[in-house]
């Protein structure tokens, strides 16, 4: 079989690989991002953690509210003075207390709780970024591996024709047994490569399922890349202002400052108002008696010595504050590094795409040329096989560089703290942390509003 007959299927396969994958009813990147946002158990866990943090405000504010406790007792007694006759006594009591002054401990606790909520919200935003970025990477990995499998399958098809053609020429005495063996060896290698690429595709599909929550089916070509700044100084400025991980670290530093204030305030005096109301019914030698009583008092407390506990709490809070400050610095450095690396990766990917496209074009021309030369006897079978391998490698490299460019662009958005449902304009309702916070911040006695959380969970679990 002439070498020129092999070029047709190879060129057609290359065009199908490098063309857009847009079958009917294909799933878009936007679809995948929406599914990941709405069905991610990682996000649901982080939202539950934030609701847990919301309760810290309610717990801190409860110290300013009055407490009311009901007590009840029943007693049966006997002694020798009553000839061991049994006498029963019943008592009910209400105890109430109200904190009037605590040297600023409660105020600091409330401020610390509010800052912890702000830190939790920033952390939730950061987890959302991670989920969305992982979705983009998983989506592009599946598409890249699909293209790799198509290239490998086309390569197997071409080499099968190559083996048949070489065997025909061997029967005619035009080539040697060595040429046939070379073609057969390349075909075996191509089949091994196809199996490896199919395995990588299976792995990528499983990773997609884990991130998105649904299997990857007919993934459509992604939309145009989002516009991102190209100046590193501007990127870093945006990241220092917007990145949720850095904002979370700053809020945690604020929490530590308020905790230190509270630890120092614990050394000061506190004043509380206390009241009791008692009803007593007792059986005695003179008969049963009822007694009602009330009492109101003010209690002041000043810690004089606590075995070193108060000083230890202050030192502990000071150490935590130092830790949080260093964590802010470390987070800022990491974000700057992440931004610089993401911008570099984007630039490298774009330069690589230009080079790989030129490589594919040149390899295609060289492959077709060496086929024609082999027909005339100017090239060997090994030359044809080598050029075919070069063309396949160039196509795979181009598919990888296209994937790398897309992921690098979203990594840059994430590094700037801009990767969100709103920025990507996904057009879906987002989780509103104010719903739960407003419900619990004032420490309501009843929890009948818990149905709201159930509705939210059911809505975002779909």
TrEMBL record:
Coiled coil: 149-207
Leader peptide range in chain numbering: 1-26
Domain of life from the UniProt record: Bacteria
Family recorded in the similarity comment: Belongs to the outer membrane factor (OMF) (TC 1.B.17) family.
Entries under NCBIfam families matching the protein: type_I_sec_TolC
Keywords (A to Z) from UniProt: Cell outer membrane, Coiled coil, Membrane, Signal, Transmembrane, Transmembrane beta strand, Transport
GO CC list: cell outer membrane; efflux pump complex
Compartment annotation: Cell outer membrane
Identification of the protein by name: TolC family outer membrane protein
InterPro entries linked: OMP_efflux, T1SS_OMP_TolC, TolC-like
Source organism (scientific name): Halovulum marinum
Pfam families: OEP (PF02321)
Record GO terms (molecular function): efflux transmembrane transporter activity; porin activity
């Amino acid at each position: 079989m002439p070498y020129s007959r092999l070029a047709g299927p190879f060129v057609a396969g290359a065009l199908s690989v490098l063309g857009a994958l847009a079958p009917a009813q294909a799933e878009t990147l936007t679809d995948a991002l929406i599914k990941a946002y709405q069905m991610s158990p990682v996000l649901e866990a982080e939202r539950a953690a934030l609701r847990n943090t919301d309760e810290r405000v309610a717990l801190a504010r409860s110290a300013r509210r009055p407490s009311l406790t009901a007590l009840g007792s029943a007693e049966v007694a006997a002694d020798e003075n009553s000839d061991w006759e049994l006498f029963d006594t019943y008592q009910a009591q209400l105890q109430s207390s109200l904190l009037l002054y605590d040297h600023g401990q409660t105020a600091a606790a409330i401020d610390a709780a509010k800052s912890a909520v702000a830190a939790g919200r920033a952390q939730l935003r950061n987890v959302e970024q991670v989920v969305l970025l992982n979705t983009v990477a998983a989506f592009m990995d599946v598409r890249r591996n699909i293209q790799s499998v198509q290239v490998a399958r086309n390569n197997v098809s071409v080499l099968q024709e190559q083996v048949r053609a070489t065997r025909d020429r061997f029967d005619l005495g035009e080539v040697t047994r060595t040429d046939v063996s070379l073609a057969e060896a390349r075909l075996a290698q191509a089949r091994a490569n196809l199996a490896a690429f199919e395995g990588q595709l299976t792995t990528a599909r499983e990773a997609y399922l884990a991130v998105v929550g649904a299997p990857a089916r007919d993934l459509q070509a992604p939309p145009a890349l989002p516009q991102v700044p190209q100046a590193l100084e501007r990127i870093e400025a945006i990241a220092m202002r917007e990145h949720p991980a850095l904002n979370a670290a700053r809020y945690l530093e604020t929490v530590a400052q308020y905790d230190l204030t509270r630890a120092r305030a614990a050394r000061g005096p506190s004043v509380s108002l206390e009241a009791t109301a008692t009803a007593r019914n007792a059986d005695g030698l003179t008969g049963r008696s009822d007694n009602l009583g009330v009492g109101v008092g003010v209690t002041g407390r000043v810690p004089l010595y606590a075995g070193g506990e108060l000083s230890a709490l202050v030192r502990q809070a000071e150490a935590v504050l130092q830790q949080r400050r260093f964590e802010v610095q470390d987070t800022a450095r990491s974000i700057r590094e992440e931004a610089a690396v993401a911008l570099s990766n984007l630039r490298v990917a774009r330069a690589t795409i230009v080079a790989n496209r030129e490589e594919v074009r040149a390899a295609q021309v060289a492959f077709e040329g060496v086929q024609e030369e082999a027909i005339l006897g100017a090239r060997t079978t090994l030359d044809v096989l080598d050029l075919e391998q070069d063309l396949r490698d160039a196509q795979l490299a181009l598919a990888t560089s296209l994937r790398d460019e897309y992921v690098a662009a979203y990594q840059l958005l994430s590094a700037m703290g801009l990767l969100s449902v709103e920025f990507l304009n996904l057009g879906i309702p987002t989780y509103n942390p104010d719903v739960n916070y407003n419900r619990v911040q004032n420490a309501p006695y009843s929890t009948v509003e818990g149905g709201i959380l159930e509705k939210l969970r059911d809505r975002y679990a779909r």
